[in-house]
């Protein structure tokens, strides 16, 4: 099973709530919008991974202590656990987003998140994450690898969870 992260930096611009998304330029989910993120490297905690991936993909510096755990997403493919994704959010970061070979960053109003250009399951959990809730979800895909070409089948979602045992 793959372990991965997503990070959603937030800001308020003259009363408009925005979230930093990326347009993914290569790999899994290419061409779709997402948060910065990626797979854990050996020995890394999810929090460290989210900090590293956000730095590598869009150039923002985040103190790991400023990340708030918002979700755990269990992606299953053809009945097998495929990816466990740890989702974080933060309002505290340094620097300005800049593009990289992996990602084109874009500040987007929370009210205008382009769910029609994202993974199909995102509309089920990301609104809650952007509303400050905590969620745990299981999302089942069928149709074989790669995950981003499989069909989204069904899901289960729990809100108001706590992540007390976080690494
Ligand atoms: N929003 C969202 N993100 C997802 C879903 N499924 C899924 O794997 N992801 C995320 C988890 C990871 O952050 C990212 C995939 O990891 P990645 O970006 O390292 O993948 P990649 O194939 O490009 O890897 P690499 O070549 O850069 O190592 O996609 C989903 O259904 N929705």
Automatic annotation (TrEMBL):
Q: Which GO terms describe its biological process?
A: DNA protection
- Enumerate the spans annotated as Nudix hydrolase domain: 1-135
Q: What is its EC number?
A: 3.6.1.56
Q: What PROSITE patterns would the database entry show?
A: NUDIX, NUDIX_BOX
Keywords assigned by UniProt?
Cytoplasm, Hydrolase, Magnesium, Metal-binding, RNA-binding
Q: Name one GO molecular function term.
A: RNA binding
Q: Which cofactors is this protein said to need?
A: Mg(2+)
Q: Which GO terms describe its cellular component?
A: cytoplasm
Q: Reaction(s) catalyzed by this protein? A: 8-oxo-dATP + H2O = 8-oxo-dAMP + diphosphate + H(+); 8-oxo-dGTP + H2O = 8-oxo-dGMP + diphosphate + H(+); N(6)-methyl-dATP + H2O = N(6)-methyl-dAMP + diphosphate + H(+); 2-oxo-dATP + H2O = 2-oxo-dAMP + diphosphate + H(+)
UniProt-annotated location(s): Cytoplasm
Q: What SUPFAM superfamilies does the record point to? A: Nudix
Subunit organization:
Monomer.
Protein family: Belongs to the Nudix hydrolase family.
Task: Give a short account of what the protein does.
Answer: Oxidized purine nucleoside triphosphate hydrolase which is a prominent sanitizer of the oxidized nucleotide pool. Catalyzes the hydrolysis of 2-oxo-dATP (2-hydroxy-dATP) into 2-oxo-dAMP. Also has a significant hydrolase activity toward 2-oxo-ATP, 8-oxo-dGTP and 8-oxo-dATP. Through the hydrolysis of oxidized purine nucleoside triphosphates, prevents their incorporation into DNA and the subsequent transversions A:T to C:G and G:C to T:A. Also catalyzes the hydrolysis of methylated purine nucleoside triphosphate preventing their integration into DNA.
Identify this protein by name: Oxidized purine nucleoside triphosphate hydrolase
Species assigned in the record: Natronococcus jeotgali DSM 18795
């Amino acid at each position: 099973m793959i372990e991965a992260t997503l990070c959603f930096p937030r800001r308020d611009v003259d009363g408009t709530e925005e979230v930093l998304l990326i347009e993914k330029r290569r790999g899994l989910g290419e061409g779709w919008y997402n948060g910065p993120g990626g797979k854990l490297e050996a020995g890394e905690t999810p929090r460290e991974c989210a900090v590293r991936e956000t730095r590598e993909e869009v150039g923002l510096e985040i103190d790991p202590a400023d990340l708030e755990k918002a979700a755990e997403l269990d992606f299953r493919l053809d009945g097998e656990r495929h990816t466990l994704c740890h989702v974080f959010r933060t309002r505290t970061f340094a620097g300005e987003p800049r593009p990289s070979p992996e990602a084109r960053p874009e500040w987007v109003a929370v009210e205008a998140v382009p769910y029609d250009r994202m993974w199909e399951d995102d509309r089920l959990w990301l609104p809650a994450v952007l509303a400050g809730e905590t969620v745990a979800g299981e999302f089942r895909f069928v149709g074989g690898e790669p995950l981003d070409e499989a069909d989204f089948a069904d899901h289960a979602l729990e809100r108001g969870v706590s992540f007390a045992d976080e690494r």
